[in-house]
Amino acid sequence: MARSLLSATAKDLEPLLREVAGAVGVPVLGVVSDGQTSIRRAVERALPGVPHQLCQFHFLREAAHPVFEADRHAKVRLKAEVRGVRPIERALEGQDDTAAEVARGYCAAVRSAITDDGRPPLAASGLRLKARLEAVADSLDRVREKGAARRRSRICAN
């Protein structure tokens, strides 16, 4: 049953809930909703004694809210630490050697990592950002180690 209502106040929803309960032909044993206050009040008035609960998604979102906020705060701090990408990209403008191309690739990887947002509560974008930035840092460390090893081998060969 659906009906267009002028508003979604408890006063407007109450008669609709009574009508639905009478039309279904079976007892209403429970109501599941997004937890909107007007819906909760309308259920209390129209269906006294019938339990009401949040749908699983909304329940999970509310339960995960403190974790989401901590993750969001961590993401903000991580982003602040890698804000220096643009000056590096500017310094590389006009350069077309291999090192400049590699550096631009790393800048693009960092940019991509900081612009990816997840959908709470199922995605912790701060944790994902941390993992992606660690992957970029690990790759840079490997490149640095290879460069140092090459320099050592050239020194030893001379």
TrEMBL record:
InterPro entries: Transposase_mutator (IPR001207). Keywords: DNA recombination, DNA-binding, Transposition. GO terms for biological process: DNA transposition. Transmembrane segments: none annotated. One of its GO terms (molecular function) is DNA binding. Pfam families: Transposase_mut. The keyword Lipid metabolism does not apply. It comes from the Bacteria. Belongs to the transposase mutator family. Required for the transposition of the insertion element. This is Transposase. The lineage of its organism: Bacteria, Pseudomonadati, Pseudomonadota, Alphaproteobacteria, Acetobacterales.
